[in-house]
Design brief:
With 305 residues, the chain is of the alpha/beta class. It is built from 10 helices and 10 strands.
Length: 305
Amino acid sequence: MGLLAVLSLTGLLPVDPRAMSNASASTSDIAKPSTGPLVRLVGLCVNFGRHQVLRDINLDIPRGETLAIIGESGCGKTVLLKSIIGLIAPSKGEVYFDGQNMGMLNEREQTKQRARFGFVFQGAALFDSMTVAQNVAFPLRQHTRKSAEEVQQIVLARLAEVGLPEDIVAKRPAELSGGMRKRVGLARALALEPEIILYDEPTTGLDPIMADVINELIISTRSRHPVTSVVVTHDMRTAQKVADRIVMLYPLARLEPDEPQILYDGPPEEIHRSGDPRVTQFVRGEARERLMELRQHNQGRGALV
């Protein structure tokens, strides 16, 4: 992900004051909350040149739900996440957030909507030149008029919420473990009290114990705040522990033209009983069928040489 995207999603991107109201400003020009799902995708397609990544995705995400999006590498999970927040524009179809079509909003309106999101990056995306306190505080300093004392209180509260002590505030990201950086990233995502948090592979690169710490933090965040969560992961332990609902995507290159890209959409406890062998193989981590496909592909390429 590029630097501008990181800045935008962490609230660090400098914006025209006319394009972003602060927390104390009037919100009379913001549409009233919709009574429907918080996020709605209608016929979403995303192409990069001739390469199609997402095809005809229809998905509703109700308020307060924790949705896990699973699937093998290259199936479009992160592209879907970026489409929800408006970093990637649909090639076709619509993305609605709180009843508003994101593609119909101007830059000022999109900036306001993105301020309602929190984003936890796969690599935390902390700024190396800043201390932990500065990383967590920056969105508050950028988008609010809170006093230094208020900002400090929020920073300490958010760090405590993710299980980090006060003595960490002066450290820089290079001094932290991978798990601590992930927690600082979550603290920063919570700084502006978002309505929806998007997690991109939150447990990747962590040992099983620290991965479960992150899982517990996702759960506790949901219990403390009225937040909707979307968790992109390939870790079935994470998906089954934190999610109310699981959606599984499949790579388009391995689908027939008329096959839906969503292979499973339902509760975690039912996914083991899916009648689709592709879902079962992913959930169980069984590579036999995939290895056979790769062998057949390689043999076919050899036959053409």
